Amino acid sequence: MSKVRGYLLLTFIFVLLVAGCTPGLAIPSPTPLPTATMIPTHTPTPTVVPTPVSGGLPAEEIRRISKAVVQIFNFQTGSYGVEEPYSMGSGTIIHPEGQILTNFHVVEDASSLAIALSSAPDRPPVVAYVAEVVEYNISFDLALIQITADVDGEPVNKSELNLPWIPLGDSDSLQLGDALTIFGYPAVGGETISLTKGVVSGFETEYTESEESMRVWIKTDASLNPGNSGGAALTDKGVLVGIPTLIRLDIGEETGVPVGSMGRLRPVNLVDYVVEVQPLEIVRRLLAKAAAFQEEQDFEAAQQPAFQALALYLSLPKIEEMSEEEIADELLSLGQEAGWRWGSWGSIS
């Protein structure tokens, strides 16, 4: 297996060198106040990527994403011991085995959670699964829930779900003015999923115990409404960078009427404070950084995160039990998820 690792590294170095020296070979990755009142945005219950027409996400990518953004129904036990619908919000599937990222206030105090999925943007979502809270962080208002059963209560095999999902991006790489596309199920949007657009309007930061600054809020001018909570804020590359969480309203002193609003998103990098980040996820993030440099044709800058990703992957214990073909296939898959082009693996037999 040491020979395999050495050969993979040599092949990878060759791919990087060729990509950096041969014009046109490295292709950009495909898609792939006066008085302030904070209110949660949950709602109490009453392979050819087409070119975008005017920028933003292509239509095919929008259809894919709309299947991975779900509606969450929070059921709570009433005074007579009967479960009743209490509120609803949104969530994003971040793993094909049914892991869903959302806001904590969307799932807080739930006795059960129903998950509704949509088959198309113009069709209302249909309740298909039941989920449970597995991790949460109250301070950052984030939660990870896991699909555990179908709508009839029958347990599901996670490995067989193969649900549509959205990869995590790097919210620390966002810049002021970057475009954002918001997906979710606000009440004002009716029964079907809603899409709004805006830009990164600013950031709010806090300092960690080690006195390092970290982003805790992303401000946006994109329209957010009750029901958007826990949904998805994506870049034009189709990666999740924020979770719609709050709307900040400016209230007129004399009239008491809202005179302006600004949406608040929780940066997706805060998910590290909710769950333990697995090595493969770190590999994906490193490849996503490399892909960003690759798209800008800055091949020299792309090499460091790409090599880090490859070294981390080849250090995983499972590698010793994998064949060369399995290693190559998984690396190809990880690269595609992150938007990174490894180059040709035809030399590996």
Describe this structure as you would to a colleague.
Helices cover 25% and strands 33% of the residues. It is globular and about 60 Å long. The strands form 2 sheets. Strands 9-10-11-14-13-12 form a 6-stranded antiparallel barrel. Strands 3-4-5-8-7-6 form a 6-stranded antiparallel beta barrel. The chain folds into 3 domains: 2-28 and 297-338, no CATH class; 35-42 and 168-264, Thrombin, subunit H (Beta Barrel), CATH 2.40.10; 61-161, Beta Barrel (Thrombin, subunit H), CATH 2.40.10.10. The protein is α+β, with helices and mostly antiparallel strands. The longest helix has 20 residues, at 2-21. It contains 7 helices and 14 strands.
Set down the secondary structure blueprint.
Elements: H1 2-21, E1 35-40, E2 43-44, H2 59-68, E3 69-77, E4 83-95, E5 99-102, H3 104-107, E6 112-117, E7 126-137, E8 142-150, H4 158-161, E9 179-184, E10 194-207, E11 213-220, E12 232-234, E13 240-251, E14 258-267, H5 279-295, H6 299-314, H7 324-338
Helix pairs in contact: 1-6, 5-6, 5-7
